[in-house]
Automatic annotation (TrEMBL):
Keywords: Hydrolase, RNA-binding, tRNA-binding. Its EC number is 3.1.1.29. GO terms for molecular function: peptidyl-tRNA hydrolase activity; tRNA binding. InterPro entries: Pept_tRNA_hydro, Pept_tRNA_hydro_CS, Pept_tRNA_hydro_sf. Signal peptide: none annotated. The lineage of its organism: Eukaryota, Metazoa, Chordata, Craniata, Vertebrata. Belongs to the PTH family. This is peptidyl-tRNA hydrolase. PROSITE patterns: PEPT_TRNA_HYDROL_2.
Amino acid sequence: VAGLGNYGLRGTRHSVGMAVLEQLARQLAVAQGWRADRHCCADVAMATACGLELLLLKPRRFMNLNGLSVASAAETYNLRPEDIYLVHDDLDKALGKVAIKLGGSARGHNGVRSCITALHSNEMTRLRVGIGRP
């Protein structure tokens, strides 16, 4: 599960994917387990939910390069694109509304586009979190 955003701009609506992952880590009682993974250029934490092992990932790159971290993690942890869930902001959704999208285009989102390019696939599931238009 990758929370897309701008690592240096935490707390902004554009980095809501990372905020969602931080909350998920708290709910799964692994918030103290974040560690820097230099190979992936990301913060990672391992968790278990409903019998599934999860790798939580917060890229340490700007949004338009998040895919490099996601692709490195996929290679390191032997994940296929269809195993990956991307959590990201969506300007076209009202603030706080969420939707799940299975595959498809980036729809103008630079972080998703970066992931599609780096993974050579658009098969990732996306949790789109509405941030509304400014």
